[in-house]
Input
Amino acid sequence: MLTLNIDWFQPFDGVTYSCSAIYLSINNLLRKERYKKENVVLVRLMPGPSEVKTSQINHYLCPLVAKLNQLYSGAAIPTNKCPSGTLVHAAILLVACDIPAARKTCRFTLHASTNACHICNCWFSCCLDGKGMDCSGFIFSDWIFNTDEENKRNAERWR
Output
């Protein structure tokens, strides 16, 4: 079981420059071993000078998703004990990142969005003072979920 970690950081003091690391930790390891540098899998570095946009992050994640799909089905990986390879299966257990990275990575809506989420047609109304969203009054049984066709049409329209 893997944890996908994504975080942006400022590598230089006094300079506005933001890069990001995408890395995996192996949850099957003991906690004291899990985050040792030899046990963390660095997947990608996303260069600056600024954070990637939501529309760009998939370009960084697509190769990882392809490899994870292979690992989910099982892949023979050589080890010290079994140089010819041993069958390994893996899956993402959770995603650990801050709120802006979670919104970009997990397809959550942005902080100023009036749409409740990406899978339904529920909308927040603006507060009377115009400073935020009124999130009250949501009744799950009233939610209208998007169809696959609507999602595809919206994606094409956005593209």
